[in-house]
Amino acid sequence: MKTLAALGCLAIGFAGGGPAPAQAADLGPPSQWDEMQKFEYYIGNIAGAMNVCRMYSLHASMRELSVLTPYGQKGLRDWGSYDGIRGAACGGLANDAKAILGDRDKLIDYLKARYDCAGGDCVER
């Protein structure tokens, strides 16, 4: 979990100021969310970015994680903030995705213990 917390801090910092021509003021995680909720949001957000970057296997793996949390689902819906990214930005996000997926099993265990997503909408247990 220490790795997840470190990645979460990096993700929050990155998500706050990325190159995003299509980014609207209401996108991004609300400031009142805790660090883990913001990290979960970023998982969904980066899943959408991987789709835009045409990195479909990373998109599928990150999407699999994002649908296990309501915050990840919102992040996935808000992926439009990455609509204009290309090149080096995609590579950096792909590296973030690979780092997150390095702890995939721990993250899945954590998310399944924290949320019930049986009906498609996730609620905290």
Polypeptide structure, described:
- This protein has helices spanning 2-15, 35-52, 56-66, 70-77, 88-101, 104-114; strands at residues 115-116, 123-124.
- The chain is mainly α and 125 residues long.
- Strands 1-2 form a two-stranded antiparallel sheet.
- β1 (115-116) and β2 (123-124) form a beta hairpin.
- The protein starts with a helix and ends with a strand.
- The model is unreliable at 9-25 (pLDDT under 50).
Unreliable residue stretches: 9-25
> Could you report the average pLDDT, rounded to the nearest whole number?
81
Distance between the termini: 19 Å
The main β sheet shows up as: 2 strands, antiparallel
Placed side by side, the strands forming the largest sheet appear as: 1-2
Provide the gyration radius in Å: 13 Å
Please summarize what this structure is:
This protein is mainly alpha-helical. The protein is built from 6 helices and 2 strands. It has a two-stranded antiparallel ribbon with strand order 1-2.
Write the layout of secondary structure elements.
Blueprint: H1 2-15, H2 35-52, H3 56-66, H4 70-77, H5 88-101, H6 104-114, E1 115-116, E2 123-124
Antiparallel strand pairs: 1-2
Helix pairs in contact: 1-2, 2-3, 2-4, 2-5
Please supply descriptive tags for the structure shown above.
single chain, mainly alpha, 2 strands, 3% strand, globular
